[in-house]
Amino acid sequence: MKKIAILSTHGFEHSELTGPQEYFKNAGYDVTVVSPESGSINAAHDAGSVDIDRQLDSANAADYDALILPGGQVNPDILRINENALGFIKHFVDEDKPIAAICHAPWLLIEAGAVSGKQMTSWPSLKTDLVNAGAQWVDQSAVTAGNIVTSRNPDDIPAFNQAFEALLQ
Q1: Which of 43, 99, 122, 147 sees the fewest Cβ atoms within 10 Å?
Q2: Are 58 and 29 in contact (CB under 8 A)?
Q3: What are the chain's domains?
Q4: Distance between alpha carbon 140 and the CA centroid of its chain, in Å?
Q5: Distance CA 121, CA 136 (A)
Q6: Burial of 159 (0-12, 13-18, 19+ CB in 10 A)
Q7: Which of 71, 48, 56, 42 has its CA nearest to residue 5?
Q8: To which H or E segment does residue 99 belong?
Q9: How far is CA 151 from CA 91, 105, 154, in A?
Q10: Euclidean distance between CA atoms 45 and 25, whole angstroms
């Protein structure tokens, strides 16, 4: 059974974490929510919370086969200045393991040095950031570039899940 880590903190877009979490659990994957926080994390817009399965400090990226990075504006902005979070993400980049990032989460891929020369999508406000980091930005529901899948927003979650699952096969 493949193990997927979902790395997130406060301010995540609720559906962008719980949609893939539910989809991949139902498909038989072992899904773990990893966070710098303990207990639970709160979604943006008072949309609820999600329990943490493992704190980042005790998580070993080598234990996971793939990584999901949910969006929301605040969540990736907090994580992209967290050295432990970036180290966790860089493991997946360096080992060429599948990564899925939606909405504002490609900010984390920029910080991890994973976007140059790749076609990607995101929430529209990240277009300039991705282009400046060397990516080719496109407006599509799900884009696969090597081992990375990116999507724009919650409406793209079905395409996001399907594209990521194809990488996991």
Answers
A1: 147
A2: no
A3: 3-168 (3.40.50.880)
A4: 17
A5: 8
A6: middle
A7: 56
A8: strand 99-102
A9: 21, 9, 9
A10: 25
Q: What is the pLDDT of residue 77?
A: 97
Active site residues: 103-104
- DSSP code string of 1-41: --EEEEE--TTB-HHHHHHHHHHHHHTT-EEEEEESSSSEE
pLDDT tens string 35-80 = 999 999 999 999 999 999 999 999 999 999 999 999 999 999 999 9
Tokens representing 34 are 């990893």
CA distance 116 to 153: 22
Both tokens of 30, joined, read 């072992």
Q: Which of 82, 76, 58, 65 is nearest to 125 (CA)?
A: 76
Cα torsion angle, 83, 110, 144, 9, sign: positive
What six digits make up the tokens of 36?
């710098």
- Looking at the DSSP bridge assignments, the partners of residue 55 are 35
